[in-house]
Amino acid sequence: MRRLLGIDYGQARIGVAGSDEIGLMAHPVETVHVRQVADPLVRLAEICEQRRVDLVVVGMPFRMDGTEGTAAEKVGSFIKKLRKVLPEGVEIVTHDERLTTVEAQAQLHAAGRTVKNSRDVIDQAAAVVILQHYMDAHPDLG
User: Fold this and answer.
1) What's the CA gap between 48 and 43, in Å, rounded?
2) Are 79 and 73 in contact (CB under 8 A)?
3) C-alpha 51: how far from its chain's center?
4) Segment 33-75, tens digit of pLDDT
């Protein structure tokens, strides 16, 4: 069974989600506050090691027309840096993250949360959406 980690990259916060033990559901893990940790990349590597992750799914922010813009370039740069600190053998893939934050916010709203009281978990919720979409698109991962 592959252990997966989903990442919603942001310059201020990085949302992290993980797969369950049977590879069916994504769930929130934590939000890495970039300015509050010594090195956010090292923290992500620690999470991968602790959870024995072998595949990291990073949300790729394509434009609505499907092209890559400056946000995608930033994620590409982040992935290059992340690859250098991850434990050996951990693979990184990208997955289209268009509208995942909107979907995550809608799910939080449906659960009774307002935008204001969702700020601390919206990045994790977006990472859950990214990872769940990836797992649903690749049912052969288990």
Assistant:
1) 9
2) no
3) 14
4) 999 989 999 999 999 999 999 999 999 988 778 777 888 899 9
